[in-house]
Design a protein that fits this description.
- The complex is a heterodimer.
- By secondary structure, chain A is of the alpha/beta class.
- Chain A contains 13 helices and 15 strands.
- Chain A has two domains: 245 residues, 3-Layer(aba) Sandwich (Rossmann fold); 135 residues, Rossmann fold (3-Layer(aba) Sandwich).
- Chain B is an alpha/beta fold.
- In chain B, strands 2-3-1-4-5-6-7 form a seven-stranded mixed sheet, with helices on both faces.
- In chain B, helix 4 packs across helix 6.
- The radius of gyration of chain B is 15 Å and the shape is globular.
- In chain B, 52% of the residues are buried.
């Protein structure tokens, strides 16, 4: 029987890790993911899980140790935030290029400078092109569910790529919410036994990892990586189908909310999607046809499916909790624009940057944007394509 | 009860305000309710003013932002009233619960509460010192909240305090907290 609990996002992901029972965890805790690792370390110390924890001196070393342990043939996890993920950056490419199915719990936080520990998507966005799979989560339940599914996706024999699950720092990681835990046995069976591929520790069959590949073959490797990425959505959907059988909860590549008959819509990631849904309901009650699309699988990005889901709208606002400096628009906006580009008839697209460094995203912000979208849909006139909202002038 | 009950806590670092919000959320889980409990994080220093929030609803809670229009405002430390407007955003039917030995009528004046708003006081610090031996007013405040919100019975709250304190504390401390919750429930005054 699923257990109803009131826990933080960090607690929920630590619980998912315990239930999956990985072989190795190497981590260097950083706020706001510290609490996740502290809870998982307690499980290890109290004998609740058989994982071997490797204490390291930095996040760079944490990811290096994860790579070593994964190549050796173990099921491997870690967690981090912000500067921690930034310090892992070069190793992130090595993990994905070596096709190691490591699962990383990313608790999204702003990047320095100025120093800030709060919720922001700059860390995850900075790692979006590292060849990892990214699943984003609105609340503690989704973070827990995505973490469990991440193992199946990453370890799938057609995939073998590392995956990170994202949730908003503090807003979700440190807030207590009602959610459901699945039974230990159910999660254990769902995750299944870890299957190794060319493990280093299989000394009967020696293999070489991390070779030098010169211009003669490097590009073929990159293309192979890109091709594997293109198979991810299909695996994500089939894993989601299996997950629904054990949990009753439906997952897809992205979530749509009142989008089918909508004329205007938000595209927004993680916790702010929840706040937006409540405001959308208010506008629907007033007769405004508003809806929302919340990406879940952000890497690889399901361009075609997203384009199909949005193309009928009159006006869409993409809300980014990170800016891509010098790229004109926020990172999510750029992906949505690319999704809609092939269509002749498509919505007018605007971009708002919100909530940086933990700035609250309030219902009034969603109201402001919906009112502007309604105006754009009516007149076709756009005041400004990109701007910061909830910010002092 | 409104469809969603929203509570704003005002306390100081080290008084157990965040724990109080968590205990209350836990107790409200029964009956299939959805709950949230979350503090407003800043530089965490003992004695610094802090806010914490609860939402309790029969519907799924999707809102992920601070409570702006609290149905109940719980003031764990009355010295905060001199520096902070705890009535901010409170609707006309809001309830204020203040940890104070003073008469609720006196507090009503200080808060400039509207006639339609309720003002309650409880000497939670005194109850805490008498039962726990330390000025940690969170347990009596949770007792008051159980009574005022009406959505969770005293028994349920006591059960939950036992559960959440049971892991960390001695029987003496648990019993003291249970008594403190009960006295908060019984001794709250309205004016």
């Amino acid at each position: 029987m699923p257990k109803i609990v009131a826990v933080t996002g960090n607690e929920a992901v630590a619980e998912a890790f315990r239930q999956v029972n990985p072989d190795v965890c190497a981590a260097y805790p950083i706020t706001p993911s510290t609490d996740l690792m502290q809870r998982f370390a307690s499980f290890v110390n109290n004998g609740k899980v058989k994982t071997e924890i490797i204490l390291v001196e930095s996040e760079h070393s944490a990811m290096s140790a994860c790579i070593g342990a994964s190549a050796a043939g173990g099921r491997v996890i870690t967690a981090t935030s912000s500067q921690g993920l930034a310090l892992m950056w070069e190793e992130l490419f090595i993990a994905s290029g070596t096709r190691l199915p490591i699962v990383l719990g990313l608790v999204n936080r702003a990047l320095s400078a100025p120093l800030n520990i709060h919720g922001d998507h700059s860390d995850g966005m900075g790692a979006r092109d590292c060849g990892w799979i990214q699943l984003w989560s609105e609340n503690a339940q989704e973070a827990y569910d995505n973490t469990i599914q991440a193992f199946r996706i990453a370890e799938h024999m057609d995939i073998r790529l590392p995956a990170m699950t994202c949730m908003d720092g503090f807003i979700i990681s440190h807030s207590i919410e009602r959610m459901e835990y699945l039974d230990d046995e159910v999660v254990k069976n769902f995750a299944g036994e870890f299957r190794t591929v060319n493990p280093l520790l299989d000394i009967e069959h020696p293999v070489s990892y991390g070779p030098l590949i010169l211009p003669d073959y490097y590009m073929e490797f990159r293309r192979a990586h890109a091709e594997v990425m293109s198979k991810v959505p299909e695996v994500v959907l089939s894993v989601a189908k299996d997950f629904e059988k054990i949990s009753g909860r439906k997952y897809s590549l992205f979530e749509t909310y009142r989008l089918e008959d909508a004329e205007i819509a938000f595209v927004i990631l993680n916790s702010a999607a929840g706040t937006s849904k409540d405001v959308i309901d208010e506008f629907r009650n007033k007769g405004v046809k508003a809806g929302l699309l919340k990406p879940r699988l952000y890497r690889p990005f399901p361009y075609e499916e997203v384009g199909e889901a949005l193309k009928h709208l009159k006006a869409v606002c993409v809300l980014d909790r990170a800016d891509a400096f010098g790229a004109s628009y926020g990172p999510l906006y750029i992906d949505i624009a690319a999704s809609l580009y092939p269509y002749k008839e498509k919505p007018t697209l605007i971009n708002k940057i919100y909530g940086l460094g933990g700035r609250d995203y309030l219902p009034e912000h969603a109201e402001l944007v919906l009112n502007e979208l309604a105006e754009v849909a009516k007149t076709g006139r756009v005041k400004t394509f990109k701007e910061y909202i909830g910010v002092r002038e | 009860m409104a469809e969603t009950l929203e509570i704003r806590w005002h306390g100081r670092g080290g008084q157990g305000t965040v724990t109080a919000a968590k205990v209350f959320a836990d107790a409200c889980l029964s009956g299939g309710r959805y709950v949230q409990a979350f503090p407003e994080y800043g530089p965490e220093r003992s004695g610094a003013p802090l806010r914490a929030y609860n939402r309790v609803s029969s519907k799924e809670l999707r809102m992920h932002c601070p409570v702006l229009k609290p149905n109940i405002v719980a003031v764990v430390d009355a010295t905060l009233l001199d520096g902070i407007d705890v009535t901010e955003g409170a609707p006309d039917d809001a309830v204020f619960i203040v940890n104070s030995a003073k008469d609720p009528k006196e507090l009503r004046e200080k808060l400039k509460a509207k006639p339609t708003q309720r003002v309650l006081t409880v000497d939670a610090t005194k109850i805490a010192i008498e039962n726990i031996g330390r000025p940690l007013p969170n347990s009596p405040m949770v007792g008051v909240l159980a009574k005022v919100s009406g959505i969770v019975g005293l028994d349920m709250i006591l059960e939950d305090v036992k559960k959440s304190f049971g892991k960390k504390f001695s029987q003496k401390i648990i019993d003291g907290n249970l008594e403190a919750v009960k006295r908060g429930y019984e001794e709250v005054r309205e004016g």
